[in-house]
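Thread: "does anyone have the structure for this chain?"

Original post by V.I.:
We have the sequence but no experimental structure in hand. Need at least a predicted one for the grant figures.
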Amino acid sequence: MSAFDLASFIANNKEDEAQKIIHNAMKEFDNIAISFSGAEDVILIDMAVKAKKDIKVFSLDTGRLHAETYRFIEQVRKHYKINIDILSPDREALENFTREKGLFSFFEDGHKECCGIRKVQPLKRKLATLDAWITGQRKDQSPGTRNVLAFAEKDSAFSTDKKDLFKFNPLANWSSEDVWNYIKMFDVPYNELHLKGFTSIGCEPCTRPILPNQHEREGRWWWEESEHKECGLHIGNLIPTAQQ
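Reply from O.Q.:
Generated one for you, tokens below.
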């Protein structure tokens, strides 16, 4: 693959054309994969399948997901007739962590250590094998913590001195309403937890339904302050704070 010209890609694509961004990103990179979280990221798969049948998809299995989420991941696999690479935490690291701190330490000292082992490290291992990845990040998901989100960028969190990693966020400017309009219009599968009041869906102990007029991320890590409601997967897109 020749060197990727990020500036040219941005100049030749429009931020409101998600499907075109996905299609062109897959043309630029052979070694590219979609990050599927078991929630609205299924839109990325739907768009990608329409452009290319042999797409690469991966999902993080933290070991603490809802039963509904596991069923949904399997539903998506069968619906689109695709393979989904299921990533698991390092066994030794997880066993040491739970032996020392138990299964619910995040309620006492925050979720970052647990997320680091169950999410960030497996993701880091996977991204080390890729040249680019596609995410379902949206600006409106965490307006208090996420910075201006580009639809194409160099991944500042997971690039290394030896290798640049590029990241595409085709839904950056989509609203939650846009997401659900697409799901309904194209009859896209979705997690049944959305019918039970869940909006942003993560691990079972750390996710609950939201109340009327609450922001969608209020159901995640509800015992922590709003500026802490990130797990570290997209740390390069966060607004800098004194703590960071």
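V.I.: this helps a lot. The chain has a mean pLDDT of 88.
O.Q.: and The first strand starts at residue 32 and ends at 35.
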